[in-house]
Amino acid sequence: MDNIKDILTEYAERYETPDFLATDPSWFMHQVGGTRNQETLAFIASSLSYGSRKQFFPKIQYILDHSHGEVYDWVASAQFETDIPNDASRCYYRLYTFATMNGFLHALKTMLNDYGTIGEYVRQNATDGYSAVAAICGYFASKGIEVIIPKDTKSACKRVCMFLRWMVRDGSPVDLGLWSGFLDKRTLIMPMDTHVVQEAGRLGLLAGKGASMAAARKLTARMAEIFPGDPLKGDFALFGYGVNH
Using an 8 Å Cβ cutoff, are 11 and 240 in contact? Predict the structure, then answer.
C-alpha cells in the first residue's frame, strides 16, 4: 500500500494543475463569470460529459455561445427555447434529442426559479456527498428526467459525482469549491466509470468490474486512506496513472 500511495500521490500532484483544464470539461465553468453562471454551466457540462470529448465539447460550447456566457439567465428565463427547441426529430448529442435536452433544461429552470441556485437546492436537501447525489437524482426523476440524470443512486452516477467534485473541493486550480461552506469534501464520492474501475483494479484498490455506487464508495474509502481529508484528489491520481500506464 505504501508504494501505491507514493505512486498516486505523485500523479495527483502532477495532474491537478491549471494545465489539466485544457482538455477537461471542467474548463467550461472557468469561462464564465459569477457563481450562478459557473455552477449552472458546470452542471450542464457535466451532464453532457460522456463519450468522445471531441464530440461532446462542441455541444457544451454551443450552450456557452448561445447563452453569451450568461447561462444562468439563459436557463432561468427559458431563453434556451430558441436555441434548443422541443424537437424530438433532431439529435443534440448521441442519445439526447433536442426534446430531451429541452425537457432537462425546463426541469433545471424550475429548480433555479424555486430555489435560486442549484447550490441552494442542494444545501436545503443534502448534508453530505451521497445525499447530494441522491437529492439531485431524485429531483430530476420527479420531473420525469431519467435519460440525462440517473433516476436513483444504484449506478455510480459518475457525472453527478464529478459535478459535486467541481463544486465542493476547494484549494484546487481545477475545482471551484463554491459549495465548500456547506458540503464537506471528505464526504464526496469518487466519479466512477469502467475506465476508473479498470485502473483501480490494476492497482489492487478494487475487486470486481462493475461501476456501481457501492463500488464507487468502496474506492472512495480506499482513496481516503491515501489522501486523508480529501479522497477525491484520487480522481486526478487515477487519471495520471491511466495516462502513464
Answer: yes
3-state secondary structure of 111: helix
User: What are the Cα distances from residue 183, in Å, to 28, 116, 120, 129, 160?
Assistant: 23, 18, 12, 7, 15
C-alpha cell at 201: 483494479
Contact at 8 Å (CB) between 98 and 85? yes
- Give residue-wise pLDDT tens across range 59-109: 999 999 999 999 999 999 999 999 999 999 999 999 999 999 999 999 999
pTM over 0.90: yes
Helix (H) or strand (E) holding 100: helix 98-115
Q: Give 174-198 pLDDT, tens digit per residue.
A: 999 999 999 999 999 999 998 899 9
Q: Is 95 exposed, middle or buried (0-12, 13-18, 19+ CB in 10 A)?
A: exposed
Cα pseudo-dihedral 64, 136, 141, 221, rounded to 10 = 120
Rg (CA), the chain: 17
In 10 A of CB 92, how many CB atoms? 18
Residues 6+ apart with CB under 8 A from 128: 183, 184, 187
